[in-house]
Amino acid sequence: MPATTPPPAELHRRVIDWYGAHRRTLPWREDPDPWRVMVSEFMLQQTPVVRVLPVFEAWLERWPTPADLAASPAGEAVRAWGRLGYPRRALRLHAAATAIVESHGGAVPGTYDELLTLPGVGDYTAAAIASFAYGRRAVVLDTNVRRVFARVVSGVQYPSQGVLRAERDLATSLLPEDDAVAAAWAASTMELGAVVCTARAPRCEACPIADACRWRAVGYPPHDGPPRRGQPWHGTDRQCRGALMAVVRDAAGPVAPELVAAAWSDAAQRERCLDSLLDDGLLDLAADGRLTLPG
DNA sequence: TATTCGTGGGC
DNA sequence: TGCCCAAGAAT
User: HhH-GPD domain: which residues (predicted)?
Assistant: First the structure.
């Protein structure tokens, strides 16, 4: 059967209705306070929901407002970040909280343009906060939404590596006019991509728009083109930096350099990564030569 | 535009 | 077992 493309309003209704019936209960959805939404979005950048949940709860209990976080040392944020990965996100969240206190009266701003000025907030996160926390109309284009559109509309398994102009135009053209409907559409398409239209084994039998999916209609052709590059890990600077950070993060106080050195055998790489961590502000060098999280 | 930046779980 | 992937941002 050919994929007949329903009118946009029909597509919106079916996906939003599906969301109403099947959406996961997540803490930042049950109480979409802007600061809670913002914290969740930072943590969810490249990190799965199940790993974020416990850290999110502890974080909000300790720092219920941006001002609370801004009043703590940045290093405490890095430590509370735990093993979520990409600890620069913790530093940027702390810096964003500071900017919110200094420039926005302590309240998370609600417009895309204001949000975009905050450290660690890019196109996706600005749109997500404006939409999920403030109910505003915004083009929320994350990896889930991109995959749904790639399959349903373009008939391909995966979206391109970067966001193309035509892709953004498509997402914009599909965005409902009304703010509340647009926000519901954003959340719904993301959820559909996250739990049904997944990267590896899509559950098309549970999809509310399977009959409208072009990829399905053309027989699920596999990705065609240059191989999708996996990120190398073993022996990389990222692995080294992670090992060094773990030593300091899990220590109660300042750490002797010999103890940090024991975490990575390649001396040249170790020194290079240590320098980069100091340069990034993820580590500080005390006067006595010991290493600490940033004050 | 292409790289870099952590971490861990599923297949 | 390795490989792929997960609500990206900054440069």
Answer: 43-195
